[in-house]
Amino acid sequence: MVRICILLLTAFAMSANASTKPQVLATVSIWADMARAIGGDFIEVEMIVPIGSDPHLYESTPSDLRKVNRADLILVNGLTFEGWLEKLIRSSGGQARQVLLTEGIEPIYNPEFKNATDPHAWMDPNNGIVYAQNIARALAALDPDHADQYRTRLENYLGDLRVVDAYIRSAVERISPEKRVLITSHDAFHYYGRRYGLEVKSLLGTSTEADVPSGSFLEIARLIRERSIPAIFIESTINPKLMRQLSTENNTRIGGKLYADSLGEEGSSASTYTGMLRSNTEVIANALAGDGAETRTRSPKRPDTSRGLMIFAAGLILALMFAAFFLLAKKPKQ
Ligand SMILES: [Zn+2]
Questions:
Q1: C-alpha closest to that of 262 among 252, 253, 272, 254
Q2: Mean pLDDT of 181-192
Q3: CA dihedral 195, 175, 292, 240 (to 10 degrees)
Q4: What are 47-93's pLDDT values in tens digits?
Q5: Pick from 181, 210, 278, 333: CA 20 to 30 A from residue 150's CA?
Q6: Cβ-contact 255, 279 below 8 angstroms
Q7: How many whole angstroms from 114 Cα to the centroid of ligand 1?
């Protein structure tokens, strides 16, 4: 009985101890996932913009102030992506260090607006490598006791990103060169398009704040008809109404939903950064290649070992509590 109580106490102490781990705050879900992959159980990760919300139009809430105050590190894309963050950090009075994830990446400049950069650098997994290295470096500096573990986990993660890069390259090769045109709601795919040889067009600019210019609508409609583009794509964080209108008026179909500024819901194929890149590529290649061979690009799902371990640990704690209760209940009254 004493042994069971000690085990229970240890389990509770371990869970209570969790709050002493480094607190990492990601502005959006994509680098929250990267940080979890690299930091594992050594850190705690929160994010500001919820899954499925548009970070370009985000309005911070009082609970964000609490998150900023709790954080030891804030992971930030920069390149004008999080226009709301500076005010949030100023009003929080927090002392958290900001980590600029795009440091070391050559940004794409917007040809229409001088000095305006395209923030969506993570859409190219080779840039994702730089994001991951920046995260690992910041974690090791914050928590030097686990620097070796962060380095090992980073190496594994970079391996995953290289596999995804090769997968995307081979999937795009299935699309005939004249059909390699990616038409989306907002301009989030230039880094992806540049890496894999896809021409990219969108209704909105690199931010979603402005209204759709009518010229852009007509230009894309003409492109779809002239090039017989088989499919255009909606995005998880943007109202699909205009894309649906483009599709019906120009005899092309909606090829599927893409993820750019947010991961997919938990449990979906796009719920991780690598999953998101694979899911997008699968949707794009299947729709534009038009060979109907959906299974050919379907990537094998990897079991999520860390989640499995957590479920196992929770089950073990429950079983121990149950056993303790059972033993106490069965103990004969004296
Ligand atoms: Zn965007």
A1: 272
A2: 95
A3: 60
A4: 999 999 999 999 999 999 999 999 999 999 999 999 999 999 998 87
A5: 278
A6: no
A7: 18
b/e map 182-191, b = 16+ CB within 10 Å: bbbbbbbbbb
Same structural domain, 49 and 134:
yes
The C-alpha atoms of residue 251 and residue 272 are separated, in whole angstroms, by 33
49 CA from centroid of ligand 1 (Å): 13
145 and 207 in a single domain? The answer is no
Say how many Å lie between the CA of residue 50 and the centre of ligand 1: 14
Nearest to 258 by CA among 305, 178, 303, 198: 198
**How many A from CA of 209 to the centre of ligand 1?**
10
CB 200 within 8 A of CB 147: no
For the range 166-172, what are the long-range contacts, defined as Cβ-Cβ under 8 Å and sequence gap of 24 or more?
167/278, 167/281, 167/299, 168/125, 168/192, 168/195, 168/196, 168/277, 168/278, 168/281, 169/196, 171/281, 171/282, 171/284, 171/285, 171/297, 172/196, 172/197, 172/198, 172/281, 172/284, 172/285
Question: Is residue 268, in this structure, part of any structural domain at all?
Answer: yes
The boundaries of the domain holding residue 108 are 16-169
**pLDDT bucket at 191, cuts 50 / 70 / 90:** very high
Report the domain count for the chain: 2
Q: Separation of 120 CA from ligand 1 center, angstroms?
A: 6
> 61 near 91, Cβ under 8 Å?
no
Cα(56) to centroid(ligand 1), Å: 6
Ligand 1 centroid vs 143 CA: distance in angstroms? 32
Are 183 and 156 within one domain? Answer: no
β-pair type (199-202, 181-184)? parallel
| Mean pLDDT within 30-43 | 98
Is residue 54 a contact partner of residue 261, using CB atoms and an 8 Å limit?
yes
